[in-house]
Design the sequence.
């Protein structure tokens, strides 16, 4: 039976991008569907009624939501080029850091960006979180070891969004001196085959986040008036 | 080599309960080390320096963190007995999705109920019932979330049941009245030895939360 793989995503979402990477790294042919989140398709509402969010992977008509859940599904369904470690303890570690990335790192970096790098507390928290990731890279080329793995994919957003934010607010977040391993990983990861060709267009991303920042600042100004 | 399994836990922790159930289902012998969260032990700080939270599973000296991650670890290590996750990848993904949903939604809604009063508490109560109803709908006619067998989603959800009496007392409502199928499912789970011996007495939880509320200056 021919396989049908659809991926509901957006052009810019780092969460959707994780699944693009995973599928491409495994050589899986899929049908990408870019959603307009201001006008959600009936397909999206049907396939993810709980959150109405992307990404959603639809495999032979059956939907899976939540990017980290989808990643593990992809890895278990298509066994070539395994992304998760084999050892249960290593798997638990990878899952922990992926969750840490989403729950703590992402929010702290976003906070630095929204406050334009001027909030010392936000910067402090982001630095502490990044230190944990730096520790994780000791003796390794990628978080997954010699090859790109689940955790590299889960943290991959760092390799794109951080430099974008740094460009907009003109503040260095991942400094080469302070985070040499993380800095090195960003270069390796972002230039790796498949990863490199999948990044969303730089200028379009820059504009998107510049507008987002401006809107947030306008909102904050309106609230204090 | 004998396995050394230690559980850093706190008796009312719903997340800790998940692990007690999982370990009991697998018949794993472990040492329970009750933690005082207001005076965190050096062991806890050493094993979970990032979040400094319970529960922590320490297996042969190595810490595993985050209850839903620990349950999967337990299932993978002690794989020859009582599988907790389904074997089919799609069913597994569904189980992981619903446990994540429970983690994201249920605790927060419950927290609003026991840490607030008035309108905020009403809102928490509405959210709470909505989450339970969504889960109830998901279960449908099946005896358990996983189908015929008690599994990952069931053991991740049933611990909250020990807090229901407290929630119902604070916000004056009844889950059983609003969600019949859910209550039937909860009773079914409580009949299992692994669940019954892992959950604290709901009256003890009410006393604990009442005191905690007082200390927070609520009511």
Sequence:
């Amino acid at each position: 039976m021919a396989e049908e793989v659809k991926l509901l995503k957006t052009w810019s979402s780092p969460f959707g991008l994780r699944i693009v990477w995973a599928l491409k790294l495994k050589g899986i042919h899929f049908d990408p569907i870019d959603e307009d989140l201001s006008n959600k398709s009936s397909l999206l509402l049907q396939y993810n009624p709980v959150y109405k969010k992307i990404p959603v992977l639809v495999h032979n008509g059956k939907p899976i939501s939540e990017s980290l859940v989808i990643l593990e599904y992809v890895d278990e369904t298509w066994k070539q080029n395994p992304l998760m470690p084999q050892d249960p303890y290593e798997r638990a570690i990878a899952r922990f850091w992926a969750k840490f990335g989403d729950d703590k790192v992402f929010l702290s970096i976003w906070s630095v960006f929204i406050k334009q790098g001027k909030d010392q507390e936000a910067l402090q928290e982001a630095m502490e979180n990044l230190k944990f990731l730096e520790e994780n890279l000791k003796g390794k080329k990628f978080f997954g070891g010699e090859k790109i793995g689940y955790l590299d994919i889960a943290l991959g957003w760092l390799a794109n969004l951080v430099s974008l934010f740094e460009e907009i607010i003109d503040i260095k977040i991942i400094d080469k001196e302070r985070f040499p391993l993380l800095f090195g990983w960003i270069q390796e990861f972002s230039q790796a085959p498949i990863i490199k060709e999948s990044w969303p267009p730089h200028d379009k991303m820059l504009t998107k986040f510049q507008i987002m920042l401006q809107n947030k600042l306008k909102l904050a100004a309106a609230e204090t008036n | 080599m004998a396995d050394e399994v230690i559980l850093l836990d706190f008796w009312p922790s719903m997340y800790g309960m998940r692990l007690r159930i999982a370990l009991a289902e697998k018949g794993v012998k472990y040492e329970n080390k009750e933690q005082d969260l207001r005076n965190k032990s050096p062991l806890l700080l050493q094993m979970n320096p990032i979040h400094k939270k319970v529960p922590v599973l320490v297996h042969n000296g190595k810490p595993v963190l985050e209850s839903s991650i620990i349950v999967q670890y337990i299932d993978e290590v002690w794989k020859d007995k009582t599988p907790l996750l389904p074997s089919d990848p799609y069913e597994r993904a569904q189980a992981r999705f619903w446990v994540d949903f429970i983690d994201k939604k249920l605790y927060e809604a419950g927290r609003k109920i026991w840490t607030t009063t008035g309108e905020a508490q009403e809102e928490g109560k509405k959210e709470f019932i909505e989450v339970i109803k969504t889960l109830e709908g998901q279960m449908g006619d099946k005896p358990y979330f996983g189908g015929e067998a008690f599994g990952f989603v069931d053991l991740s959800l049933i611990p909250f049941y020990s807090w229901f009496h407290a929630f119902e007392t604070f916000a004056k409502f009844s889950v059983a009245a609003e969600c019949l199928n859910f209550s039937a499912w909860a009773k079914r789970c409580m009949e299992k030895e692994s669940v019954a011996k892992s959950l604290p007495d709901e009256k003890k939880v009410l006393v604990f939360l009442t005191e905690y509320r007082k200390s927070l200056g609520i009511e």
